[in-house]
Amino acid sequence: MRSPVLLVVAHGSRDPRHAATVHALVRRVGALRPGLRVETAFLDFNAPSVPQVLERLAASGEAGDVIALPLLLTRAFHAKSDIPGVLREASARLPELRIRQAEVLGPSPLLLAAVERRLREAGLRPRDRRSTGLVLAAAGSTDPEAIAAIADMARELRRTGWCSVRPAFASASLPRTEDSVRALRDEGCARVAVAPYVIAPGRLPDRIAEGAREADVLAGVLGPSPELARLLLHRYDSAPSVLTAPARTLRSAVPA
User: What is the mean pLDDT of the chain?
Assistant: First the structure.
């Protein structure tokens, strides 16, 4: 029996580094599971779009089942509205495809491990934790669920032994990265590290880096880390069995 196609749905960016990083991550996923067909699509700015990929899959006749996986760390607007809407419209137009939407990436211990990897790569050693305050810097959202998820991640990191951990946001929410860096200094942390809780480079990660100027260490974005690639496959394997609702039920099916 043919495995469902994994369709990785990224946000997209005008910054070419974003798409390059997404494609590197998808290649790593494919290397972890040879034989699995993995496709990439973008919501905005980059090609191909989600409808373009789904139309190509339908026209080829080589795919029946598709699992669309949002390349998102939290459940915010794109995961709750944009992506479900696009998939429902595609299901109505392409009845030959059976499309399911997987869960977003967070929360997961694998994301904690990916953050820790980037901090180690930036030069922090395990014995540095007790004297180092950590800023977990996310892109930002107005969605309370997404904000709460970042706060929960910061608490989980704090339990691993850091001097203190504070969340920060590049947009939409407060505090900003520079504010959390200063707050950790005021708490008495001997040094401060900033961990961007974002997948790929772009405008908002650059804003995080700008806010980290007064920090001692700036880690890299999560990017094509082994942990992130494994997490994508875990979400693929755990995708719900329920098919995407047809377009006529859009109003009632979109989560509040």
Answer: 93
Structure tokens at 199: 């997948």
Supply the CATH classification number for the domain 109-222. Answer: 3.40.50.1400
Cβ atoms of 132 and 162 closer than 8 Å: yes
* Contact of 29 with 21, CB cutoff 8 Å: no
| Residue 254 burial class via C-beta count within 10 angstroms: exposed 0-12, middle 13-18, buried 19 and up | middle
**How far apart, in whole angstroms, are the C-alpha atoms of residue 66 and residue 148?**
30
Pairing of strands 164-169, 132-138: parallel
Interval 169-175 mean pLDDT: 96
Name which of 122, 77, 73, 124 is nearest 227 in CA terms.
73
In this structure, which topology does domain 5-105+227-253 adopt according to CATH? Rossmann fold (3.40.50)
Q: What percent of the chain has pLDDT over 70?
A: 94
pLDDT for 246: 42
Q: How far is CA 65 from CA 30, 82, 157, 196, in A?
A: 17, 21, 37, 34
Q: What stretch(es) of the chain map to CATH 3.40.50.1400?
A: 5-105+227-253, 109-222
